[in-house]
Structures are given as C-alpha cells and as structure tokens.
Amino acid sequence: RDLPDQITRQCAFFAQARPLSLPMQDGVTWLEKLVANIDPALSEEAAKAKVVEAIDRFITRRIRQASDLIVTDGVRRIHNGDVVLTHGSSRTIARIFQRAWEEGTRFRVVVVESHPHHEGRALLRDLPRTLPVTYCLVGGLSYVMKEVTKVLIGVQTMLSNGYAIARVGTSLVTMAASVDKKPVIVCCESYKFTEHVKIDSFCFNEKGDPRRLLCDAPRRVTDITAALLDPAVAIPPSSASASTTPATP
C-alpha cells in the first residue's frame, strides 16, 4: 500500500511550489493521520472510498456549513443605520453584507484598502449595487473610523494564544478601532484554528514579486533589487471584541 507515501509526496510538491498556510499544514496532518489509521484489511478501492468520504465530510461540515453559520450570525449583528467597516476581501464577509441587505437591513459599508494586494476591489465587485459603500485607502482610516459603528473582518488563521493572522493592514484597522472604542468582530471557521504560535510578523511570510511595489510603473523597468514579502500580520486578542465561530461538528 503506497497511498500514505503518495499523499506525502504530493503534499511536499505543493509545499515546494508555495509555502502552505497554517490551516493547510494542519489539513495535511489530518489527512496523513486519516490514511495511516485505515484498516489494512480493506481493499484498495474501499480504502480510497473511505478517504474520499472523509474529505467530503470535512469540506461540508468544517468549511461550507461553518461558513453558513458564520453568515447567519453575522447578519444578526448588523442593524439598521450601522456603518460597518471591513478590510481587504473575504467571501464570508461579502456573503454577510449581501444577505443582510437582501433581508431589508439598511446600513453602509466602508472598505479599507491596503497595498500591495488591493483585495478590497474584489469585495466591491461582490457587493450589491444598491448597497452604499465608501472605499478608501488605509491612510484615511482615522478619518472614516469616526463614523463607523462596528468592524467586521475575516482572518486566515486563529492561533492558540488568541492572536489572528490576516492580510497586512488588518492589525492597523483593529488597533484604530480599539482606540476609538469600536467593536471588532472576527469571522473565522473552526478549521482555521491551529495549535501554532506566531511571535512576530515575518516568520511565516513568503517572498512575492517585487514588481508589485512599482504599481503603475512602466513595464520596461527590469532592474529591481527589492524583495517584496507577501505579508501577513498578527492581530492581538486585545484588539478584537468578539469572534464568531461555529462549534466543530
């Protein structure tokens, strides 16, 4: 039976192409443990069917259903007259805004953008056209924060010490909200919870294309010596007011 070895090699190949995020690393560990515990007496086809069934159940319960529960809870937290600020782009956050607006709640959204990913533009395309939206760069954060009633953000990972990992600029948003006494609600599925601990903002970053630093510079520019990190920052638990997370099935 070479299934465990095949899975290990495939995961190693993906890791060489691009560093795995912490939830992906935990997912690989879960998959390897699942395969290792399969009864050796099972046929190859039965073993593969059991693995596929377990993966489908994981996706359904830990990702899709968890996202649905977060959306339902997030909609209940938005009220008429709210001004909700978010940073970057999150499919779950976009679904919360869409459903709340469709259910008749009238509120306004503030999308804060940061360089170099500019993911907020993708969020703008996913929002209803009739929903009032204010779009600004992170430099205008302190100005727009005065009228915000709550902050809603998505994160990439929730660490065991209570810190959350998200796109660069998110920590600045949460700290600014904390200074202005605005509630910060973190949306995170349970599969993103990890036992890892991150003590700085650099140890898990990967190198990106330094050309993105030049924005709209001419394409003929070829002599670039700067190294662009694909940044992710740690958000301290003191900056978050609440976390909406479904219980693990």
Overall description:
The structure is a single chain. This protein is an alpha/beta fold and 249 residues long. It contains 7 helices and 11 strands. The protein has helices at residues 3-17, 22-36, 44-76, 91-102, 120-126, 141-144, 170-179; strands spanning 83-87, 108-113, 133-137, 150-154, 157-158, 164-167, 184-187, 206-208, 228-230, 232-235, 242-244. The chain has a 6-stranded parallel β-sheet with strand order 3-2-1-4-7-11, with helices on both faces. Strands 5-6-10 form a 3-stranded antiparallel β-sheet, covered by helices on one side. Helix 4 links the parallel strand 1 and strand 2. The two termini are 31 Å apart. 26% of the residues are buried.
Radius of gyration: 21 Å
* Model regions low in confidence, pLDDT < 50 over at least 5 residues: 220-231
Total count of helical runs of at least 4 residues: 7
Which structural category fits the helices and strands? alpha/beta
Compute the number of strand runs. 11
Largest sheet: 6 strands, parallel
Strand-residue fraction?
A: 15-25%
Mean pLDDT score, rounded?
A: 80
Helix residue percentage: 25-40%
Which short descriptors sum up this protein?
3-stranded antiparallel β-sheet; 249 residues; alpha/beta; 6-stranded parallel β-sheet
